Amino acid sequence: MADPISGSIGRIAAAALPRTDGSAAGVSAGGPSFADTLKEALGDVSRLQTDAQDTINAFLTGQPVELHQVMAATEEASLSLELLVEVRNKLADAYRSIMNMQG
């Protein structure tokens, strides 16, 4: 299973963090756009949710799946969704702050 922190969700979260060298955070020239990264993150979360559901179904139908695999897949999907929701909340807060500065 892919580590959601090192995937596209992690890249979005890292882009939102302040950089230690004082430069602006963001995507370097020639890199993927923010919209592409966000779409990839949504796809990753969706894939993890589907994988977790497939693992649960396999366990329930008696296929050779261990309980710890079910728990790990479910927790990974849950954490990736929570991280994506928090990133969304931070982006919404940033947007509101920018709009308040202009008004």
Describe this structure in words.
By secondary structure, the protein is mainly alpha-helical. Helices cover 70% and strands 0% of the residues. It has helices at residues 8-16, 34-60, 67-102. Helix 1 (8-16) crosses helix 2 and helix 1 packs parallel to helix 3. The model has no long low-confidence stretch (mean pLDDT 83).
Report the sheet with the most strands, covering strand number, pairing sense and barrel closure.
none
The rounded Rg comes to 17 Å
Mean pLDDT comes to 83
Q: Which blocks of ≥5 consecutive residues have pLDDT under 50?
A: none
Distance between the termini: 46 Å
Order of helices and strands: HHH
Provide a count of the helices.
Answer: 3
DSSP, total strands: 0
Counting helices, strands and paired strands, the structural category is mainly alpha
Shape: elongated
Beta-strand content: under 5%
Helical residue percent band:
55-70%
Gist of the model:
The chain is an all-alpha fold and 103 residues long.
Keywords:
103 residues
Walk me through the topology.
Layout: H1 8-16, H2 34-60, H3 67-102
